[in-house]
Amino acid sequence: MNNKNMKTGIMLGIITYILWGFFPIYWKLLDIYEPDVILANRIIWSCLFMVGYLLFTRKLRSFFSLCTTLLKDKQKMLYITLASIVISANWLIYIWAVHNDFVIQASLGYYMNPLLSIVLGVLFLKEALYPAQKVALLFASFGVIYLTVSYGVFPWISIALALSFGLYGLLKKAVKLDSAYSLTVETLLLTPIALIYLCTFVGVDLGFAASTSWTDTGLLLISGVATAVPLLLFGYAVTYIPLSLAGILQYIAPTIMLLLGVFLYDEPFTSAHFVTFTCIWIALILFVSSTLRVHKVRKFTN
Predict the structure, then answer these.
(1) Cα separation of 208 and 66, whole Å?
(2) Which of 33, 82, 131, 194 has a CB 3.0–4.6 Å from the CB of 40, allowing a cystine?
(3) What is the 8-class DSSP label of residue 242?
């Protein structure tokens, strides 16, 4: 891997996580719509955008061939269907959290995500835990318990976001599809359900009647672009940089979200939150350092 490709990968990774970090501002602009309407539109327009993207990049024919193969593989179809359901749940919880002024809790969820991914890896893939990772999980667990006891509120939003995204990653790992093809299949499976839901419970206008301006309508229409572009950029980024480096860069997004919640949206950040976030940050430092250390040892021995 040459320096030019590494720099390109780092740049794309940073851009991706900055975009994801500032996502709460975009979803706040859509607060005229209900979260379920936004989710349904997000699925539909993401699907249309991805089909257009595959057509533009001349990958549509190979995508159809892939779909034919997938239909014959019941296990992979099951995994990708479950992945579609899990990621849509993640999107809905995230949009609801932003609309209801829980940006800080959403931020905590994405800090916790890699730690919960470790747990899922141990439970389902029988992966071994390194000593530092065990200590990291203890710190993270203490932080969540402390927030629950001291603040009197169980951070279900954070847990739900971290768990759903962790399960999504686990299912994607099982399917092993190109990111563009995978997102297209996932949204294609969900689009009929989204259309039926909007037509049945919202109306044939697909929710656009709630808009009072062309700006609101336009913002809802580009939800597909806002969803797909960062995922595509991330897909390209990880082809140029090690996954360990991508893992470090991912903390850009929840850090931006935390700062937005505290300074832009004036959400309460109590001493209990401070203790919890401190525990999570310590856990992440232990997690990242142990991962990098193992990566260096494997690179040296190979």
Answers:
(1) 34
(2) 194
(3) -
